[in-house]
Every structure is written in structure tokens, then in C-alpha cells.
Amino acid sequence: MEPVEEFTKVESIFVRKRNALMVCGQFTPIFTDYYIHLMENQLRHKEQLDTIIKDKLAFLTLHLVARPWAETIAWTVNLRAPRVNFFVTGSSVEENITGHLFTENVKESDRNILYSQTLVKGAEGRKSTVELDDNDPAKWVETYYVQSEQRPARAFRLPDENFVLIAAQPDCDLEWLEALTTEDVEKIMVEEQTKVLETRKFRFHCGCAPDRFLPALAQYKDNKEELFQGDPEVEITCPRCGSKHVITPDML
């Protein structure tokens, strides 16, 4: 059995004559760390929901590479049926991706919605809201690009946990882009003129730790009983990744 790489390598490739940017990666390393994370935190999701959040982790990673450097992006999708919130976020600076899903206390909506937030240090953040027509994350990405990025894009799942995002550039061959099939995408590197622009690496990592939650709990420093209510510790769940952290009175 071959060892799994620690990082997912993501390539940014320009497709000449088609004027399109293809971003692709093999996501076994990220998915492996995602499952280790679930096991360590005793989390288990239904297969359908598990597949969706893995798709979102992959497609957001590709989107980060397709975007300018130094951005941190979060995507939240609120689905009507099943009633669930999917949250994924990643940073081009840290080259990491993480996510979590919520099935309890989810506000009921009359439609499926994707909320996007983009942050750049020292600049004003950007938010957008996109209404979704189905439950397919690949279609979510394509809808998001048309409505928020103001350019068409195609998203594909290939065998062996490979994912591809192809986004239009100025003077793109839109007829070619719209007609692409999974089989066509698998042959692009052979049949089209391409140039690798850059290669980057991402990993599944949140960076949360007990110390990061302490500032929010500082108000209880002089009234610990209100927080602990006689218990020797409290458990805090990271809203970004679902990790569980134990806080004890002496930590305050």
C-alpha cells in the first residue's frame, strides 16, 4: 500500500486557444485527514452528507487557487431538504481547508442558499448570496461563478478523488467550455495546448486550540461558577471544524 501524501497538490493550468483556467487536484490527502479528524472527535455523518462536505472541501480549495493570493474564503450552504448547514473555509495564505456540518437547530429556509464571504487582510471583506436550484455541489460552484464571479465555470469530479474546476478567462471559448464532459476533461492535458502556471499544496487543518477560546470566556474569570456550574470542566466545540476542546477553571 502506497503512503498517502500529507498535502494535496493543486495545479493551476492555462488552456491555450480556449482561454480558460483549469485548476485540478487529487484530494485523497485532504480526505484522509478529514476522516482522521472525524474519528478523533467521535463524529460520524450520513453518507450523503459526508459526500457533499467532501465535495465542498475540494471545490473551495480549487476556487482558492483560482482566486488572487492572500484571500480567506468561507462558504456556507443552507439546504431545505435535508435540513442541514454545510460550512467550509480555507486560506490561501495558510494553505489549509477545513469544514463542518450542522444538522441540529438549523433554521428552516424556503430555498437552498449559498453564502460566501471573502476576507483579505487590510481590505474590506466581500459577501455574496446565491440561490441554488439543486443538491449537487458541482452545480453550486457553477451557479456561484455565474452570479458572483460574473464569469462561467465548470466543476467536475473525476475518478480516484480527483476534482477539476475550469473557469473562463477573457475571450474564452464558451461553446467549448459549456460542452465539456467528464471524459473531455480527462483528456485536456493530452488534446489541448496547456501551460502549468503554478503548483500549490493544501491540507485539512483548522488550527483551533483551547487557548483560542479563552478570550471569549474572559468575562467568567471572576465568576467561574456561572460557567462551570459545579462541573470540573466544560466542553467547547469549534464552529469551524467541530473539534471538541476541554476548558477547566484554572485555564481562566
TrEMBL record:
Give the transmembrane ranges.
none
Q: Identify the keywords attached in UniProt to this record, alphabetized.
A: Chaperone, Cytoplasm, Disulfide bond, Redox-active center, Zinc
Gene Ontology CC annotation, any one:
cytoplasm
Coiled-coil features, chain-numbered ranges: none
For this protein, the record's InterPro entries field holds: Heat_shock_Hsp33, Heat_shock_Hsp33_C, Heat_shock_Hsp33_N
Offer an example of a GO molecular function term for this protein.
Answer: unfolded protein binding
Determine if Zinc is one of this entry's keywords. yes
Q: Name one GO biological process term.
A: protein folding
Q: What is this protein called?
A: Disulfide bond chaperone
Organism in which the protein naturally occurs: Rubritalea profundi
